[in-house]
Amino acid sequence: MPDPAAPAVLVTRPEPGGGETAARVAALGWEPVVAPALVLRSRGFVIPACQALLLTSRAAARALPPPIPGLPVLAVGVATAEEARARGWRDCRAADGTAESLAALAAATLHPGRGSLLLAVGEGYALDLASALRARGFRVIRRIAYAAVPAQTLPERARLAILAGRVGTVLFHSPRSARCAMTLLRAAGLAAAAPGMDVLAISRRVAQAAIAAAAPDAWRGVRIAARPEEQALLALLGPSPTAGSTGRPTPSGEP
User: In this model, does residue 250 exceed pLDDT 80?
Assistant: First the structure.
């Protein structure tokens, strides 16, 4: 159970992943304060003829239409592959959690001459991945599986916790979440709280976005997960000082 005496942890991940992250934070003995910086909205799409379907996030997997027998799925990480399997897509292979590893997996297991690759992504996302695949000779079709819309306001519970100085750590899962979270803090008149909070970022790109978003102010500290997955991110957080030896991160994958 979270200890009310322990500093609170701000969870900026969009739902439904935000609630999952909050549960893992609570299991470590911290008090999670959920404040999604983005709102995800699935969009239906039709899968054209292609040799494989590539997924860059669990949100894209959640938006998938019914499975097509024989069509393989290449997922950015283990959690995304599991999400696709839960929706009936059985032939799923997972990369190591980055766009670069997904492009490498496609190059190692697929051939440009066998047909197009379908890249199911969020609106405005994975343009670099599409370019990397095309540079390897693949024809790439992009389909928008979901849109990530900036949240309009900071939840009242989060506003009060930050105002009271109770939030000591903020978790960032994506560059855009970091930028939008800082926009929410400024809109709430809480930008000055950043120097009192540590940032835990899931990747170097996310950390760089968080630093840039806070400028000219600076976070109290910024740490980067050893791997771009939530298990490594929560390993940075660790058990709360009052959690004893029972708290431990729960395995998960990319956001």
Answer: no
- For residue 185 the two structure tokens come to 């803090």
% helix, strand, coil for the chain, step of 5: 35, 20, 40
Domain ranges of the chain: 8-37+153-237, 40-148
Do the domains 40-148 and 8-37+153-237 match in fold? yes
Rounded to whole angstroms, the Cα distance separating 255 from 253 reads 6
CA gap 183, 149 in Å, rounded? 13
Residue type at position 66? P
Fold for 40-148, please state it: Rossmann fold (3.40.50)
pTM for the predicted model, two decimal places? 0.79
Percentage with pLDDT > 70 across the chain? 93
Question: How are beta strands 117-122 and 92-94 bridged, if at all?
Answer: unpaired
